[in-house]
Design a protein that fits this description.
five-stranded antiparallel beta sheet; Phosphorylase Kinase, domain 1; single chain; 2 domains; 251 residues; seven-stranded antiparallel beta sheet; 28% helix; D-amino Acid Aminotransferase, Chain A, domain 1; 33% strand
Length: 251
């Protein structure tokens, strides 16, 4: 069988042409990066876990009426998604102080914020994905004011859903980032949650022990990233207890 045409390869995923017009196959790699790819490693089974977890979250969002680009999981490492035009922003929702917010504002990590804070970063690896304001977004035409209103609404709905799901399995959703895409139906445009939602893109702490169950395990050398992601998957019922994800070769 001929290999699919590659469209794009990123740090954690590779995108291929889908079987039908307007679709893309998203392949989850085992590669892990941090600090704008200055730190790199291959973590066995990471791609399998992120694929399963992203399917779980995207399916859950779709069930409550939040539009996403997700169509279906194809196998242990691939999922079929709608092709969309990605708005060049990372949309970050913070419930507790952590990471760059703690450093920027001198707030102790783990401090509960008075309300969810939504931030935006311009997607550009060469620039280190700099923080931008709505004024920058409007001035440079990355998104309209209506888009920004819709993006804010989507981000907060994702936060409500994710916070509840995680709290139910004893995990605190500290913060997360999503990407938003535009899908066109003729002249009509709608915005959808795109890319992935996984421990790669969230900060997740055990409520009781404060143990980190996200990519900070890799960033800060806190142990096994696969074990951390597997714990999230087990609590959510995504992966049977005792199962160990293994790399799967896709021809």
């Amino acid at each position: 069988m001929a290999r699919r045409k590659k469209i794009y390869e990123g740090k954690a995923k590779t995108l291929y042409e889908g079987p039908e017009p307007g679709t893309i196959v998203q392949y989850f790699k085992d590669d892990a990066t941090a600090f704008n790819a200055e730190k790199r490693a291959t973590i066995e089974g990471k791609g399998v876990l992120n694929n399963l977890l992203s399917e779980y979250f995207m399916t859950g969002l779709g069930a409550i009426g939040v539009p996403t680009h997700f169509l279906k999981r194809l196998n242990m490492r691939e999922q079929l998604v709608r092709s969309c035009e990605i708005i060049p922003l990372e949309v970050i929702v913070r419930n507790y102080a952590a990471g760059s917010l703690s450093k920027r504002l001198g707030i102790e990590e783990g401090t509960a914020l008075p309300r969810p804070i939504v931030e935006y970063c311009y997607k550009d690896d060469a620039l280190g994905d700099p923080l931008v304001t709505e004024e920058h977004i409007a001035a440079f035409g990355w998104a309209s004011q209506q888009d920004m209103d819709d993006i804010l609404s989507l981000a907060l709905r994702v936060n409500d859903f994710m916070s509840g799901v995680m709290f139910g399995v004893g995990i605190r959703l500290v913060d997360f980032k999503i990407e938003i895409g535009r899908i066109y139906d003729g002249d009509f445009q709608r915005l959808v949650v795109a890319d992935e939602i996984s421990p790669d893109s969230c900060r997740l702490w055990d409520i009781e022990t404060k143990q980190k169950l996200d990519k900070d395990v890799f960033r800060r050398d806190l142990g096994s990233l696969t074990d951390a992601y597997s714990e999230v998957a087990r609590r959510l019922g995504v992966m049977p207890k005792g199962a160990t994800p293994k790399p799967t070769l896709i021809n």
